[in-house]
């Protein structure tokens, strides 16, 4: 038996099948091995040694999005997210070569200096006109290379050239910057900091913080994920609240007890709060955004819907904008297919899951699409561009709210 696999948690699953209608990958393939109960059965067999680690088994386990929609409807409260991470770790024990790619991606994203280098290369690629030229001449083709290029976020300014600065000393909340957000979503982080400051709150940005570790955790690299979590637990120790603009990062930080145990993991989990709910609870009656006569479509990420919560607070904040027309991009709230790195590693499945969102955008014709997770935003924006649709601006809901409040003193720069 794989020493680290939680077989008792897997045995909670009674294979009732109530999760099947809610599983995006089962919806795509109608294959039992791509359903939550099917994957649990495969992981049980792998852990007990009755099923070998084959390429087909890898395909089924790696195809899971980790959306955790199954958890939200499971009557037995099976901790599926914990199981799929442990199942991939069990695969890693038998197939060590699987660790190479996630370790490479993690090394590139987790280190601040490596992120600086990536940001500089991306900025140069765009600023010198090479990206525009390659796209105009069609030299990227129409395959995977062109698709990867379409996912790159536009960087109008050199990343890290202006670094946000938080308060020194006691603070009301600490802002988690993450790695992808730090590199590709600095506007959302700056907007969040300004909003918190408008409410008279002291905001810290601990410089010692780092990647949440999701890229390691969901690849079954528990030791690397634990090191990231330990690093952040120490960086955020003592702050009354830890807030992230990316719901995926918040969801990962909430898993701290699984990686760090008690009391340290439990302490970090207790600090993590949904930023939309945090703002809504403290919103002053006299703070009124400017009117916005626009249709805004909400895409709620799976991590927010199934793990962190706060979707109702997000909508309540946006409704504070007078004249706004708020609609749901997808009333079913199905997964868009981004799912961490899934939209890069499984492009065909990710694009099939994205297609209903693109069709909804074409039908609704919103002026904006808002999402509280950077991966979803990149995936949605790239899909709209590739489809040649009249593309609404895709942005974080807090960025839109901050705009409607007008100019404010920007977060400090160092």
UniProtKB/TrEMBL annotation:
It holds the Pfam family Fer4_8. Transmembrane segments: none annotated. InterPro entries: 4Fe4S_Fe-S-bd, 4Fe4S_Fe_S_CS, Cys_rich_dom, Glc_ox_4Fe-4S, Helical_ferredxn. SUPFAM superfamilies: 4Fe-4S ferredoxins. GO terms for molecular function: 4 iron, 4 sulfur cluster binding; glycolate dehydrogenase activity; metal ion binding. Binds 2 [4Fe-4S] clusters. It catalyses: (R)-lactate + A = pyruvate + AH2; glycolate + A = glyoxylate + AH2. The keyword Iron applies. Its cofactor is [4Fe-4S] cluster. Residues 4-33, 55-86 form the 4Fe-4S ferredoxin-type domain. Keywords: 4Fe-4S, Electron transport, Iron, Iron-sulfur, Metal-binding, Repeat, Transport. The keyword Iron-sulfur applies. Its EC number is 1.1.99.14. Component of a complex that catalyzes the oxidation of glycolate to glyoxylate. This is Glycolate oxidase iron-sulfur subunit. The lineage of its organism: Bacteria, Pseudomonadati, Pseudomonadota, Gammaproteobacteria, Nevskiales.
């Amino acid at each position: 038996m794989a020493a680290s696999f939680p077989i008792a948690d897997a045995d909670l699953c009674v294979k009732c099948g109530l999760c099947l209608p809610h599983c995006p990958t089962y919806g795509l393939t109608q294959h039992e091995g791509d359903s939550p109960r099917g994957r649990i059965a495969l992981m049980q067999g792998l852990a007990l040694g009755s099923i070998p680690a084959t390429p087909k088994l890898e395909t089924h386990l790696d195809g899971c999005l980790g959306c955790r929609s199954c958890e939200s409807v499971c009557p037995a409260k099976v901790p599926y997210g914990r199981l799929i991470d442990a199942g991939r770790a069990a695969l890693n024990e038998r197939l060590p070569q699987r660790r190479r790619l996630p370790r490479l991606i993690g090394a590139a994203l987790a280190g601040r200096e490596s992120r600086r280098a990536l940001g500089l290369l991306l900025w140069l690629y765009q600023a010198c006109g090479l990206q525009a030229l390659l796209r105009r001449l069609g030299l990227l083709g129409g395959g995977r290379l062109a698709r990867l290029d379409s996912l790159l976020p536009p960087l109008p300014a050199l990343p890290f050239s202006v670094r946000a600065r938080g308060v020194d000393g006691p603070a009301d909340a600490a802002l988690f910057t993450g790695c992808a957000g730090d590199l590709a979503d600095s506007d959302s982080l700056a907007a969040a900091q300004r909003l918190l400051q408008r409410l008279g709150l002291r905001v810290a940005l601990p410089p010692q913080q780092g990647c949440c570790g999701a890229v390691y955790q969901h690849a079954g690299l528990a030791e690397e994920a634990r090191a990231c979590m330990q690093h952040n637990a120490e960086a955020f120790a003592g702050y009354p609240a830890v807030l992230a603009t990316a719901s995926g990062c918040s969801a990962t930080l909430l898993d701290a007890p699984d990686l760090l145990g008690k009391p340290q993991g439990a302490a970090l989990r207790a600090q993590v709060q949904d930023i939309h709910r945090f703002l809504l609870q403290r919103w002053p009656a006299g703070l009124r955004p400017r009117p916005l006569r626009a249709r805004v479509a909400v895409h709620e990420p799976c991590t927010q819907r199934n793990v962190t919560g706060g979707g109702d607070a997000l909508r309540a904040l946006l409704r504070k904008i007078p004249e706004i027309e708020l609609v749901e991009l997808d009333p079913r709230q199905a997964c868009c297919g981004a799912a961490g790195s899934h939209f890069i590693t499984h492009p065909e499945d990710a694009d099939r899951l994205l297609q209903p969102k693109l069709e909804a955008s074409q039908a609704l014709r919103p002026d904006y699409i808002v999402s509280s997770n950077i991966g979803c935003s990149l995936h949605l924006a790239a899909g709209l561009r590739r489809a040649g649709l009249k593309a609404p601006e895709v942005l974080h809901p807090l960025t839109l709210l901050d705009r409607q409040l007008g100019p404010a003193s920007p977060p400090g720069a160092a």
